[in-house]
Design brief:
14 strands, four-stranded parallel sheet, 3 domains, about 350 residues, 12 helices, single chain, alpha/beta, Arc Repressor Mutant, subunit A
Length: about 350
Amino acid sequence: MDNYKYLAIVDWVKQYIASEKLGPNDRFLTEKQLCTIHGCSRQTVRQALMMLESENVICRVRGSGTFVSGRPAPQPGTQAKKSIGVISTYFSDYIFPHIVTGIESVLNDAGYAMQLAITHNQVLEETQALENMLSQGVQGLIVEPSKSALPNPNAGLYAELRRSDIPVVFFNAKYPWADFPCAAMDDETAGRIVTDYLISCGHRSIAGIFALDDIQGHKRYSGYMKSCLENNIAGWENNVFWFATSDRSSMFRFAKGKLLDLIDSVSAVVCYNDRLAISLLQMCKEKGIRVPQDLSVVGIDDSRYASICDVPLTTVHHPHSKLGEAAAELLLGTIDRRIMLPEDRIFVPELVIRDSVAKV
């Protein structure tokens, strides 16, 4: 049995052209006919046709149909250059370059090219990226989901990928309804570790600021919540501030009053990630709030900014490069059937203690 249905169709087409003695510019079968012959979905047939077109076996003319190319058909078994699609929410800074570099290093070693697309955490840009990758005949996809905690219009497209035997691996998070494997940090444990550390330093009034539209935010909140409950921390539920990731850059302008009221009532804050924590440090500096003397602050991810900001940040380390490598290894193992039942690869975070927490 071939690894994927579309590869079987690719070889069948080459054999069919040779056996039927089809010549250059002869009309070829339609997508519908190929679906009927092979008993598969239109997406699978399109994937095969994209590969055949890239090998110059066929050519497709919009409004006219599919034709045999002007060049001789390659022999059955000939493969196009292998490539994997990688779709990330962001790339230019923070931890994302490390993750993508980890993915690329493993793919390169295995002889695969990487095609990268950035969604800016927009679901419709994710739709476009998925469709573009499929049109280019990728052998698999490594995806960071956009707004992973919200309803998503791409659920049907991912279901079609499953039916077409095109492997997908998520990284950092995955949609709750998705049954593809994921390489991620244990975000709940991350939220718990930083909250436990604050409590161990004597803090009993602890706020939390979390992203509401992604699963990582929910899991980090869950760790914060469980730590507060297990340690009998009072009032934690009223000390949570939720934000949408698209509003992250503006909330320190438009919600500054609410944030100041929040931190005025607590001795410590758990931040969704380092980027948010560093913005909070800047606001505190502007308002004359001393960190950690007046307010202790912890982040998550141990980004490159965490150790060089005004007050070096206590945080938990994100295994960015290793996580990227694991995502790529998981996908390649699925492609060549070394991994028959792929499971999530979850990394346990480690606490990094710096100067942003005071003992009380």
